[in-house]
From TrEMBL:
This is FAD/NAD(P)-binding domain-containing protein. Keywords: FAD, Flavoprotein, Monooxygenase, Oxidoreductase. Gene3D superfamilies: FAD/NAD(P)-binding domain. Belongs to the paxM FAD-dependent monooxygenase family. Pfam families: FAD_binding_3. Signal peptide: none annotated. GO terms for molecular function: FAD binding; monooxygenase activity. It comes from Aaosphaeria arxii CBS 175.79. PROSITE patterns: PROKAR_LIPOPROTEIN. Residues 6-330 form the FAD-binding domain.
Length: 441
C-alpha cells in the first residue's frame, strides 16, 4: 500500500498549473503532461482575474509578480451600444479589496501563464512535453500515452481543457461540449495604433484603467488595457455563424465591421484598427453527473466550460486546482492513525477516492452556478431595444450604492457578487477534510 505522494496533471493551462503549484506547496510529487512540444502555447490575449481568482494568487504569494504585469481594474464602465452613453460606472479598486478581499486585475494571458508556470517549476513540478494521453487505466492509476509509455501516480487530474480526453475516459462515453449560439472575435491593439486615430474620446478611453463594456441587441463588446496600457484587448461577442463543428476560423474584417454597424462611433474607430481577427466558437457543457472516478478527477474547462460572460472560467479552474492540492496535501500530512483508510488502496472507498469526492462536492455547485450566471448575463447584456432594455438601463443609471443592490439582474446584485467574487474556496475545503478525518479516524 502506498501513501498519497504523487499526482499526474494532464494539461498545463491555468487550472493545471494552479493545481501543480498547490500540490507542490503541499509536498506532493507532480508531473504535468502536455501534448504540445512547447509549454508556452497560449491562445487569446487578455484575461480578467476577478478577486476570487486573485485570492488564490495571494495564497501562492504571487500577487507582487502579477501586479508588476497586470493592471488593477479601477472601474467597470457599461455603455449603450449605439452612442456609447454611460449606463453605469462601477468603482472597483477599493470595492474589490474591501468587499471581496482581493484586487481585480486584467493581464495578458501569456504573462499570467508564464508566472504560474515559473512558480510551478520553481517549486519542483516536472513537465513532460509531447505527452499525448491515449488512455487512463483507472484500476491501475495509470496514464497511457500515445507512444505506449505508462505513467503511474496516486491521483490523476484531467486539466485538459474544453476538449478533454480525460472527461470521455472518465465518463466512458463521448461528451463533447455544446454550442452556446455565440461566438467571439478576439483582437488586440497597440497604444500607438489607437493614438494614431487622434480622437479625444479614444484617448480618454485609453487613459483609463477600466473594463469597458458596450451592451447591444444580441451582442456586446469588452475592452481593457494590457501591459500598463501599452496594449489593449478587445473581445466582440455575437451570434455564432460558424458551421457546426468548426471551433475557430480567421475572421473577415469587413464582416466583423458590418456586424457592428450603427454602434458607438468610438467603438467603430477602435474596430477600424483591428488588422486581423480570430473567430472563436463559444461552447459550454451541461453539468456532468460526476467529475471523478476512483483516483481520477477533472478540473476547469474539462468539467465546467462556460460562456465567458462572468469572466470566471479561469478563476474557477484556478480555484479547483488549489482546492484539489489542499485536500490531497492534507491527506498526505494527516496522522497515520487510521491505517489503511488513509492510504491509496484503489478500492472505491479508499482515502484518495474520498478526497476527490470531497473536491467534487466542494466545487460542483459553485461552478454550475457560474455556468448559469454566464447565461443570465447573456440575457442581461444582449437585450434588444424595447421595454425590457429600457427598464434595465433605467435601473443601471439609478444605482448609487452597488453594495446595497438587490436585483434579479445577478450582474448587479450585491449578495450574488459577494458570493461569487468574495468566496474563499480554501477554508470550506479544509473544514470538509477535517470533518471527514474525524469520521474516519
Ligand atoms: C473569449 C474568452 C474570454 C475569456 N475571458 C476570461 C476571463 O476574462 N477570465 C476568466 O477567468 N476566464 C476567461 N475565459 C475562460 C478561460 O479562458 C478558461 O476557462 C480557462 O483558460 C480554462 O483553463 P483550463 O486550465 O481548465 O483549460 P485550458 O486553459 O484550456 O488548458 C488545457 C490544457 O490541457 C492541454 N491538453 C489538452 N488535451 C491534452 C491531452 N490529451 N494531453 C495533454 N495535455 C492536453 C492543453 O494543451 C492546455 O495546456 C475566457 C474564455 C474565452 C473563450
Amino acid at each position: 500500500m502506498q501513501r498519497v505522494s504523487s499526482v499526474i496533471i494532464i494539461g498545463a493551462g491555468l487550472g493545471g498549473l494552479a493545481c501543480a503549484i498547490e500540490c507542490r506547496r503541499q509536498g506532493l510529487n507532480v508531473l504535468l503532461l502536455l501534448y504540445q512540444m512547447q509549454v508556452h502555447i497560449v491562445v487569446g490575449a487578455g484575461i480578467q482575474i476577478p478577486p476570487n481568482g486573485s485570492r488564490i494568487l495571494q495564497r501562492f504569494g504571487l500577487l507582487p509578480k502579477i501586479s508588476d504585469r497586470a493592471t488593477v481594474v479601477e472601474r467597470i464602465d457599461v455603455r449603450r451600444y449605439e452612442d456609447g452613453q454611460m449606463l453605469c460606472s462601477k468603482e472597483q479598486t477599493l470595492s474589490s479589496i474591501e468587499n471581496y478581499g482581493a484586487p481585480w486585475f486584467v493581464i495578458h494571458r501569456q504573462d499570467y501563464h508564464g508566472i504560474l508556470l515559473e512558480e510551478a517549476t520553481r517549486l519542483g513540478a516536472a513537465i513532460r512535453l509531447g505527452a499525448s494521453v491515449k488512455n487512463i487505466l483507472t484500476d491501475r492509476d495509470t496514464v497511457v500515452l500515445e507512444d505506449g509509455t505508462e505513467l503511474t501516480a496516486n491521483a490523476i487530474i484531467g486539466a485538459d481543457g474544453i476538449w478533454s480526453v480525460t472527461r470521455e475516459i472518465l465518463l466512458e462515453r463521448s461528451a463533447p461540449p455544446i454550442e452556446t449560439g455565440d461566438l467571439a472575435y478576439r483582437a488586440t491593439f497597440t497604444r500607438a495604433d489607437l493614438e494614431a486615430l487622434k480622437d479625444s474620446r479614444v484617448d480618454e478611453l485609453c487613459a483609463q484603467n477600466s473594463v469597458t463594456l458596450w451592451m447591444g441587441p444580441n451582442k456586446h463588446v469588452v475592452f481593457y488595457p494590457l501591459r500598463n496600457g501599452a496594449e489593449f484587448n478587445m473581445v466582440l461577442l455575437r451570434p455564432d455563424d460558424l458551421p457546426e463543428g468548426v471551433k475557430t476560423a480567421h475572421g473577415e474584417l469587413g464582416e466583423m465591421r458590418a456586424t457592428f454597424e450603427g454602434w458607438d462611433p468610438v467603438l467603430l474607430k477602435l474596430i477600424s484598427c483591428i488588422p486581423s481577427v480570430l473567430k472563436w466558437k463559444l461552447l459550454h457543457h451541461e453539468e456532468l453527473q460526476t467529475w471523478t472516478k476512483k483516483h481520477v478527477a477533472l478540473l476547469g474547462d474539462a468539467c465546467h466550460p462556460t460562456l465567458p460572460y462572468q469572466a470566471q472560467g479561469a478563476a474557477m479552474a484556478v480555484e479547483d486546482g488549489a482546492v484539489l492540492g489542499v485536500l490531497l496535501g492534507k491527506l498526505k500530512s494527516a496522522p497515520d492513525s487510521t491505517g489503511a483508510r488513509l492510504h491509496s488502496s484503489g478500492d472505491s472507498t479508499d482515502s484518495v477516492t474520498s478526497m476527490l469526492k470531497i473536491y467534487e462536492d466542494q466545487r460542483k455547485q459553485r461552478t454550475t452556478l457560474n455556468v448559469q450566471g454566464a447565461l443570465r448575463n447573456r440575457w442581461f447584456y444582449h437585450m434588444v431595444d424595447g421595454e425590457e432594455q429600457q427598464n434595465r438601463d433605467r435601473f443601471l443609471r439609478a444605482v448609487t450604492d452597488w453594495e446595497a443592490v438587490k436585483s434579479p439582474y445577478t450582474w448587479a446584485d450585491a449578495q450574488y457578487n459577494r458570493d461569487l467574487l468574495g468566496y474563499d474556496s480554501i477554508a470550506p475545503a479544509e473544514h470538509a477534510f477535517d470533518s471527514w478525518f474525524l469520521e474516519n479516524s
